[in-house]
């Protein structure tokens, strides 16, 4: 069953006479290639660069991505019939932002110091979600399919951030961290003296861009031939 | 008046509203409603968030061997908005000094630092209180802290002026 069935004489995109803004997707979802890949957006790159500096941040951003994507799909899916025709995109972004702020609220009640540190990162999550084509198209998908795609899109991107963090944090800080503890972050291991940082540049944005460049080069080398543009 | 009659009157009323106004009204209700929900959640949980913050910071102070503890947060209501944007202000137990917990931007990440301001309005101590601040604090240039310090000290003067 589709979440939204067009009423008599009504197009799936809104009221009668309005240009429908929801159309069945003809191309499959691609996170990494194609002009619609959410990773190509500025918010996606910004989130990737900033959140991958420490694994503790990456874990929380992964949780925030899952929270925002899945709950946004549910909220938009069920409220679709009463969403306004014009300005629907703005309302969808606002719904994602409210859900995101609730996530930040929960984190700030359990771990306030970490919540302060990751505020900027968490606020980028709905911007990234808005750049995806999935949420505005929820009405044309079955709920299970929409939730599955939302999960895979959020999880894959979160995993990518985590993978980059697994390289950057040991190189830059000589440690690996998880959320928790009095300081907001608990270190699983640390180089100890605080002076020994083997590759400090890996912790900065410049280092992240360097690693990202290597990652993209690897992806271009090994991606399947049918995905090559 | 029955429910059916009320429903009919509402339907009649809505039918007389021009479609453009109706659409704009629906959009305004959505936007206003969402802002209201988020605002209520944040406003109603502020005392609890402040309490949790005091406990967390006091734990860090105990770990670092500091000889003072935070008491309670200053209410942001009625204070100068720009001052409150610098961070969260706290009173210190058995002291006239006050403390500000504020975020410092470092390599795209916010790190959390505690500043203790003495009675004369001068910052006495800066303590990194989050994991990120402990790691990145020593890499931050002193000019960055000087900038934050001057903002906090002038904010403190405004807070003192507003006190009875």
Computed CA radius of gyration of chain B, to the nearest angstrom: 24 Å
Estimated helix fraction of chain A? 55-70%
- State the secondary-structure class of chain B: alpha+beta
Radius of gyration of chain A, taken over Cα atoms and rounded to an integer in Å = 20 Å
Describe this structure in words.
- The complex is a heterodimer of chains A (229) and B (164).
- Chain A has helices at 42-51, 55-79, 88-110, 112-131, 143-173, 205-222; strands at residues 175-179, 185-190.
- With 229 residues, chain A is mainly alpha-helical.
- In chain A, strand 1 and strand 2 (185-190) form a beta hairpin.
- In chain A, helix 2 crosses helix 3 (88-110).
- Chain A is globular.
- Chain A starts with 41 loop residues before the first helix and ends in a 7-residue tail after the last helix.
- A five-stranded antiparallel sheet of chain B has the order 1-2-3-4-5.
- Chain B starts with a helix and ends with a helix.
- Chain B has helices at 3-15, 19-44, 46-64, 81-85, 131-136, 142-162, and strands at residues 70-73, 88-92, 98-106, 109-117, 123-128.
- By secondary structure, chain B is of the alpha+beta class.
- In chain B, strand 2 and strand 3 form a beta hairpin.
- The mean pLDDT of chain B is 81.
- Chain B is 55% helix and 20% strand.
- The chains are: A mainly alpha (229), B alpha+beta (164).
- Chains A and B meet through helix 3, helix 4 and strand 2 of A and helix 2, helix 3, strand 4 and helix 5 of B.
List keywords for this structure.
heterodimer, A: 229 residues, mainly alpha, two-stranded antiparallel ribbon, 5% strand, globular, disordered N terminus, B: 164 residues, alpha+beta, five-stranded antiparallel β-sheet, 6 helices, 5 strands, 55% helix
Topology (elements, then pairings):
The complex is a heterodimer of chains A (229) and B (164).
Chain A: H1 42-51, H2 55-79, H3 88-110, H4 112-131, H5 143-173, E1 175-179, E2 185-190, H6 205-222
Antiparallel strand pairs in A: 1-2
Helix pairs in contact in A: 1-4, 1-5, 2-3, 2-4, 2-5, 3-4
Chain B: H1 3-15, H2 19-44, H3 46-64, E1 70-73, H4 81-85, E2 88-92, E3 98-106, E4 109-117, E5 123-128, H5 131-136, H6 142-162
Antiparallel strand pairs in B: 1-2, 2-3, 3-4, 4-5
